[in-house]
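Lecture notes, part 5. Sequence design as translation. It can be helpful to think of inverse folding as translation between two languages: the language of shapes and the language of residues. The source text, in structure tokens, appears below.
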């Protein structure tokens, strides 16, 4: 599996040092979500600076139930809402290439491996499109 490039990760850490300050930072996702992560870091860093929240940091970006799942330390209710919003948006972005994506499964149902993919990347893996509503509800 192809993961997010170290060049992309290094750029994010340079651009958003206030919210990517964890020593145990993990990027367990693919390149297609890089822009989404960039926007998430940008908005939370601006907000944290305005509100003088210095202890907030992201700790992990990973895929869960086919969508983005973000772990963090500290923060407040609005930061939590920004994160949940980004996680929901990820179900519309191909994790591999960043184009319009839909939830797909290796088995065609919720028991398989689920990933948000565009039709090209889903076809390459022989994944079938599934309804996201039931799966998102389990997060
Ligand atoms: Zn794709």
């Amino acid at each position: 599996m192809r993961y997010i490039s170290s060049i992309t990760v290094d750029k994010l850490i340079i651009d958003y040092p206030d919210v990517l300050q964890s020593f145990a930072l993990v990027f367990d996702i693919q390149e297609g979500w890089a822009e989404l992560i960039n926007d998430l870091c940008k908005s939370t860093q601006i907000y944290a600076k305005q509100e003088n929240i210095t202890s907030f940091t992201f700790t992990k970006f990973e895929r869960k139930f086919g969508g983005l799942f973000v772990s963090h330390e500290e923060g407040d209710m609005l930061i939590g809402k920004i994160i949940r919003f980004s996680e929901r948006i990820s179900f519309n972005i191909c994790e591999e290439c960043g184009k319009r994506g839909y939830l797909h499964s290796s088995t065609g149902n919720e028991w398989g491996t689920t990933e948000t993919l565009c039709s090209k990347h889903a076809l390459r893996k022989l994944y079938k499109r599934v309804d996201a509503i039931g799966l998102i509800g389990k997060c």
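The translated text above is only one of many valid answers, since several sequences can fold into similar shapes. The first strand starts at residue 26 and ends at 28.
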